[in-house]
Amino acid sequence: MSEKILEFTGYHGTSHINTKNIQKTNFKISKSGWLGEGVYFFEDNEILARNWARKKFGNCRIDVIKKTIMVNQDNLFDLSNPNSDDSKYYHEQRCKFIHNHTKHQLKAKYDTKKRYENIILNEICKNMDIHCVRACTYTYQIYDDEYETDSIFPNGIELCVKNLEYIV
């Protein structure tokens, strides 16, 4: 086991009301999201955090909370490089998951890709004692709603922190 501690700067976009609650009681683990259960941050990108929050919360007052994420390298599942061992392992597990379901089961049980990707990552994290997932993602921009667009190309890196102790 490695004792190498990795440090990331994360930006969490949210409403002003949620910021007050976070200050009082700490972050709350989200039960959904591409990268599974956890608290989501944009690595080194305050603008993406702000844009995400603006899309999520509309015209209410938006805050961006800057935090340091410190995680032991052994507890990080890093999907930011498609050729990494973590990415290869993820796709092996995804393949097994899909082959264990019929096409009809996947469509009926999981309404979007996000739902089963989430389940796969949650299972990997539980089995491997992973406390943070890191991945390149595309975060929808405000204009995506108006023009009904999205992209397959990432515009940032997201961190999904599953253990609140890593958020400093």
What helical percentage do the residues reach?
Answer: 25-40%
Which residues form runs of ≥5 with pLDDT under 50? Answer: none
Shape: globular
Distance between the termini: 23 Å
Helix and strand composition category: alpha+beta
Tally of DSSP helical segments: 6
Strands in their spatial order, largest beta sheet: 3-1-2-6-5-4
Strand content: 25-35%
Strand and helix order? EHEHEEHHHEHE
What attributes does this structure have?
168 residues, alpha+beta, 6-stranded mixed beta sheet
Describe it:
With 168 residues, the chain is of the alpha+beta class. The protein has one domain. The protein has 6 helices and 6 strands, in the order βαβαββαααβαβ. A 6-stranded mixed sheet has the order 3-1-2-6-5-4.
Short description:
This protein is an alpha+beta fold and 168 residues long.
Secondary structure topology:
Elements: E1 5-15, H1 16-25, E2 39-43, H2 46-57, E3 62-72, E4 76-78, H3 85-99, H4 103-109, H5 113-128, E5 132-137, H6 142-147, E6 156-161
Parallel strand pairs: 4-5
Antiparallel strand pairs: 1-2, 1-3, 2-6, 5-6
Helix pairs in contact: 3-5
